[in-house]
Design goal:
This protein is an alpha+beta fold. The chain is built from 6 helices and 9 strands; from the N terminus they run H-H-H-H-H-E-E-H-E-E-E-E-E-E-E. The two termini are about 20 Å apart. Keywords: DNA-binding.
């Protein structure tokens, strides 16, 4: 499967709206240089930063990663058919973030429900900038351990433990163990 080119997609959307990099940066309230760095793939933005940038374009993460609607009406999916949403979002930045992979089942936008298979390598972290978006999300830890922060509540969840919350609450996910953590989650409306 080819890696998703975040920079090329962002540039395509920005140009389609007739915006300069500076105009998009102002609309998204991010530094001007950040747009250039992302578009040239010299910087991999965090999910929170990419959401801010896409907010400046008036599109969702789901629309960003799923430019084409699902025409096939597919119902069943094999592991290689899951859409990798993070191959270019998360990277090992100075050893502090670690590797996080989010794979989506089908076309979330068309059905209004996003189901993800999430893998958190040891040290993986959604970032110090807490996530917040209008949705409801929940998940079950399938293996390993994952520290989940929602507002001022923090808990380390183990295999079989689950979470469910209003996504407007600032939240963060971190693997603070030395083992891989796997989570199956759902979000409605789609977030990524």
């Amino acid at each position: 499967m080819d890696e998703f080119d975040v920079g090329a997609r962002l540039k395509e959307l920005r140009l389609n709206q007739g915006l300069s990099q500076r105009q998009l940066a102002e609309a998204a309230e991010v530094p001007h240089g950040q747009i250039s760095m992302v578009e040239t793939n010299k910087s991999s933005p965090s999910v929170a930063t990419l959401r801010k940038i896409l907010g400046g374009l008036g599109i969702t993460m789901s629309e960003f990663f799923e430019p084409e609607a699902n025409q096939g009406g597919e119902v069943f999916f094999t592991p290689d058919q899951l859409k990798d949403l993070t191959s270019r979002i998360y990277s090992d930045r100075a050893g502090t973030i670690g590797r996080l992979t989010l794979k989506q089942v089908g076309n979330a936008r068309d059905l209004g429900l996003q189901i993800l298979h999430e893998t958190y390598e040891p040290g993986a972290d959604t970032g110090a900038d807490m996530l917040s978006h209008p949705a409801t999300e929940g998940g079950i830890v399938m293996s390993g351990e994952l520290e989940v922060t929602v507002g001022d509540q923090v808990r380390v969840l183990k295999a079989g433990d689950a979470y469910l919350f209003n996504s407007l609450e600032p939240h963060r996910f971190r693997n603070i163990s030395d083992r891989v953590a796997v989570v199956v989650s759902a979000c409605t409306p789609p977030y990524l």
